[in-house]
Design a protein that fits this description.
globular, transmembrane helix, membrane, transmembrane, DUF6580
């Protein structure tokens, strides 16, 4: 149930108005947690909910035309992060594994989405190595915020329960 509640938080973190400099969303952390806590056969639900959120934001908030092909890579990334969470964190969510997932999820989105922006935004970036570099430099503030947001969400959903278990009552052998 908590994975579904965190999915709602992820959607709200995208649709509730906030200052543009803040740019904090719980998407990456919630997808990692969903993958770690739910069976992979349920992955279609968060992908569908986030895809619907993309449609809503594009069409009704930003008032841009919506083209499915523009979002296929993003939706594939949603699914990939759920799979990452499942394979890296479902059996054992150690600090090292959570850290690796936190680094992989936003970094992969940064690399893929900015490469795609370079390829598709023909008037924005020159078709050269310098143009590709420009697209990555332009994405750095978003990457920083995504990395921080994913780390914060992961710390809450994986770290707090682990700390609580460590601080909880320890079982003592009989007669001790």
């Amino acid at each position: 149930m908590s994975a579904y509640l965190l999915l709602i938080v992820a959607v709200l973190s995208r649709v509730v108005p906030h200052p543009s400099w803040f740019n904090f969303t719980a998407v990456g952390g919630s997808l990692l947690f969903f993958g770690a806590r739910r069976p992979l056969r349920q992955a279609i639900l968060p992908v569908a909910v986030l895809a619907a959120t993309d449609y809503y934001l594009t069409s009704f908030v930003y008032r841009y035309p919506f083209h499915v092909q523009d979002y296929l890579l993003t939706w594939a990334w949603y699914a990939a992060v759920i799979v990452l969470g499942h394979f890296l964190l479902a059996q054992k969510a150690s600090a090292l594994r959570v850290t690796a997932a936190v680094l992989i999820a936003p970094t992969s989105f940064f690399l893929v989405s900015n490469f795609t922006a370079w390829v598709t935004a023909t008037t924005l970036y020159p078709r050269s190595l310098a143009g590709l570099g420009m697209s990555y430099v332009a994405g750095l503030p978003f990457y920083r915020n995504d990395l921080l947001a994913t780390a914060a969400v992961a710390a809450l959903v994986f770290g707090v329960p682990a700390i609580a278990r460590q601080m909880g009552p320890q079982s003592h052998p009989a007669g001790a």
